[in-house]
Every structure is written in C-alpha cells, then in structure tokens.
C-alpha cells in the first residue's frame, strides 16, 4: 500500500490523527468488522499522519502512559469543532463558552496516547473466539478468593449502611431493605430473586452468589433517593458507628466531598447539569470513560456545538434466550433464582434476563467505537457505568483506592459473565479511579512477552494487595 508504514516502524512512533468531517448520521453496529492492520485503517479513513518520536516514558514500565482528553481531542481535531480553540470565539458569549469548554477539556476521560494503533491481545480473532475467551476469564475471576471476599465484605457494609440509614428516619430494617433493593428491578435482571426483606438479608449476609448480591447492588444504584437521603443526613459519627473508626472516617470524607459537588450541580440549569456537573452521589467522575457513553454538547445559549456523540444507542431489550440449566451460566443458578425465573413452572424454564448486550448497540463513529475497533477489542455496551457507580459507592463505604484493584476483578467477573459488558469496557470504566500502579494498558507493546499483556493488568503479575479490611490477596493466574 502506498501509505502503509511497516509494523515494526509503527511501534516506534506515536500517531496524531486529524479527523475528516463526516456526515451527521451515525451508523450503529453490533459487531464491527476488524481491519487488517493499523496502517490500512489510517489509509481507509484518509487521515493525514503526523509522526513524532515516542518519549522514554512511553516505552518503559509495565504499562502504557495515559494522556489527558484535551491532548487526545486536539489530536483528533474535535475540540475546535465546538470550542474554536482554547478561548472560544470573540463576542458577548466568549467568556461563558470558554468556561464550558475549559470544564470539558480539564475533566473529560483519560485516553491512552502512546502508540495509538497498538493491537489488542484479541486483534484478528473471531468474534466467537473473543466471546469464549472473555467469558472464560470471567469464570476464572469468579472462582478467586479476591472475588468471594470482596463481595462478602461489600455486601455486609452495604446492608449495615441501609439498615442504619433507615434508623435515622425511624424505619424498620425489613421495610428499608425492600424499599432500597426491591423497587427498581425485576426478573429481567440477572440474579434478581424477589423483593422480600428476608430473602434480601439472606442473600447479602449468608449465601448469595455473585449474581444475586451484585444484582441487588445494581437495583440500588437505580434507586438513588435511598442513598441520597442517607448521604445528605449522616454525620461522621454515623459512618464511624456503621463502618468502624478508620473506614467510617474515610467514607465520611468521600461523601462530604461528593455532597459539595451534588449540591452545586443542583443549582445548575437542567440542560447542563448532566454534561457539566455531578448530579448524584454515584455519578461517574468527570475524567471517566463512562462519559463517552452519552453525547455532550455546549449549551445553546453559548452557541451549542457537539463535543462528542454518545457511543451507546438504546434499542429496547430482548431476553437472553437461555434456559435455567444452560451450561453457559456460571455459577449455576441458585434454587432461589430457578424458583423465581420459573414462576411456579417445573424447571428447566426460559430465562427472562435482559443483559446489556441485548439492549444496547454501539454507535460506529463514536469515539469509543473508533478506538476499540482500531485496536481490535470486543464491544458490548460501551464503558461500564455500573463499574463507575460501584467504585464510587465502594469509596463511600470506606474502602480505599488500593482496594479498587480487588473491585476491578469483581466487576469484570460479574459483568462479563452476565454479558452486560466486555473486558475492555469494565477496565476502561475502572481506569479513572485506579491508582497509577494498577493502571490499564491499551493494546500491546513491542516489548510485551505475555500472551495477554493488556488483560493481565486486571491483576498485574506479582501484585500482592493488603486490603484495608484485612485479607491479603496474592498474585494469581486467571488467563488461559
């Protein structure tokens, strides 16, 4: 090819693309075809290529370096489309428009900026092979002590928070549990059993499986008034009484910081609070990849202008098409799950679950789809908002940033096996809040010797984590 760059050479440069204008209509895809190689992709998109030498920081260390979204969007010539440079256009709205552009440039997601065309470990494998590989990884993670102990501790803290929070309002525990977990989910949600307080207590405190426990957590994240009521009222003594002195102090600090942001956002005009604010206590941080799931534009009173199009397109949900005894389900359904799904019929019966893969299409020319396709990653439903929500909730329950390494394992295990997200989608969603030593790697580097170096970052080789609540988790094998 006339514009091809040899692969070896491409591994020594960082590519800066200028995106040509495309029609406004966004295509939607389920499974996107993969390009033969990164250089062919550049030619197909007719993007002029500008090269510069990779710095030493780009090619050393166990993981690739990250750059700010401002740098990446300028590289992709997207910011000027809406913001006309760093300071906005001249005129009466210049200052306000510049302020909005500055917010987005400063707080949007971190994006890998090294060798932009580095292939993923999944590159050039068939969609069916990617699916099997990822689900086996998820099963391997489910069986780990990390998953079991982290899920158990989280469930205990969450139960105590809900019950103690209800006491503030003079509400008994059974009513509080039903209100918190039972009102927003149905048999369409994997792991949902019923909304009886006795069942919820048993699942959270005794013998719930990963699906049942985190299914309840998912229900709660869709029921923000319950958490908001607790977080707006509770003081430091409350958190220390529920979680212990150290964890309680951490939790109170996190909640107070988030409260300031939530209160400030509440006073913003409704047309800007979701793109430019933090409207609730679990909202993804402004440097989260989850923000790319939804389109963002400047307010109309400062000229409008699309900052980016959303990567997700809700299509309406369909059921998973499996039976309750399907060997594709891990762990196998509990007696509670079977009884609920079959609704009085003799098992096996058809599952009523509606996973993310059956509800969402990926918008082909969204930023996420472009990057995932270029590198060859499997896509399901975009960067996982649930992962970001759970991370914020974990910090609000007194877990530490280092503890989030264990939570990344849990989110990947749960959401990939349930077919709500892919591996890269949980890893991307976790990235904004992960300590730098656990940061992700996008694609493969020329120096990588592992078969799956990018996915190995889920739990970096040789890592030992001493959790804030006691258990010590050693390095473990989870990749085939």
UniProtKB/TrEMBL annotation:
Signal sequence extent: 1-26
Signal keyword on record: yes
Keywords recorded for this protein, A-Z: Signal
Superkingdom of origin organism: Eukaryota
Stated name of the protein: Phospholipase B-like
Organism name: Polarella glacialis (Dinoflagellate)
């Amino acid at each position: 090819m006339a514009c091809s760059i040899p692969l070896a050479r491409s591994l020594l440069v960082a590519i800066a693309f200028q995106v040509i204008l495309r029609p406004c209509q966004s295509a939607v895809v389920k499974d996107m075809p993969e390009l033969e190689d990164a250089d062919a992709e550049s030619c197909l998109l007719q993007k002029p290529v500008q090269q510069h030498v990779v710095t030493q920081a780009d090619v050393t260390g166990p993981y690739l370096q990250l750059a700010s979204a401002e740098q990446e969007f300028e590289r992709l010539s997207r910011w000027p489309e809406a913001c006309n440079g760093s300071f906005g256009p001249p005129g009466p709205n210049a200052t306000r428009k510049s302020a909005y552009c500055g917010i987005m440039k400063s707080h949007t997601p971190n994006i890998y900026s090294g060798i932009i065309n580095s292939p993923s470990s999944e590159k050039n494998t068939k969609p069916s092979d990617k699916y099997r590989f990822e689900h086996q990884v998820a099963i391997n993670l489910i069986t780990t002590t990390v998953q079991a102990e982290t899920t158990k501790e989280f469930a205990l803290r969450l139960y105590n928070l809900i019950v103690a929070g209800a006491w503030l309002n003079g509400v008994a525990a059974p009513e509080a549990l039903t209100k918190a977990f039972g009102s927003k989910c149905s048999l369409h949600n994997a792991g949902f059993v019923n909304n009886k307080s006795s069942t919820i207590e048993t699942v959270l405190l005794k013998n719930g499986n990963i699906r049942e426990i985190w299914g309840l957590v998912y229900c709660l994240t869709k029921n923000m008034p319950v958490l908001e009521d607790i977080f707006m009222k509770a003081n430091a003594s409350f958190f220390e009484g529920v979680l212990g002195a150290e964890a309680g102090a951490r939790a109170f600090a996190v909640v107070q910081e988030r409260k300031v942001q939530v209160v400030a956002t509440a006073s913003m005009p409704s047309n800007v609070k979701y793109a430019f604010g933090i409207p609730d206590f679990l909202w993804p941080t402004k440097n989260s990849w989850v923000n790319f799931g939804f389109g963002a534009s400047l307010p109309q009173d400062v000229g409008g202008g699309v900052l980016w199009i959303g990567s997700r397109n809700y299509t309406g949900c369909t059921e998973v098409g499996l039976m309750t005894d399907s060997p594709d389900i891990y762990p196998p359904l509990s007696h509670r799950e079977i009884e609920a799904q079959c609704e009085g019929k003799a098992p096996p019966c058809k599952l009523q679950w509606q996973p993310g893969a059956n509800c969402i299409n990926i918008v082909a020319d969204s930023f996420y789809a472009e990057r995932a396709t270029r590198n060859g990653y499997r896509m399901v439903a975009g960067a996982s908002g649930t992962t970001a929500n759970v991370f914020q909730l974990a910090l609000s329950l007194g877990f530490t940033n280092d503890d989030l390494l264990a939570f990344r394992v849990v989110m990947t295990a749960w959401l990939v096996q349930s077919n709500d997200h892919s591996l890269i989608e949980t890893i991307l969603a976790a990235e904004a809040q992960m300590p730098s030593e656990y940061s992700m790697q996008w694609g493969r580097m020329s120096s990588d010797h592992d078969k799956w170096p990018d996915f190995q970052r889920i739990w970096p080789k040789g890592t030992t984590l001493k959790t804030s609540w006691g258990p010590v988790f050693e390095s473990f094998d989870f990749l085939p």
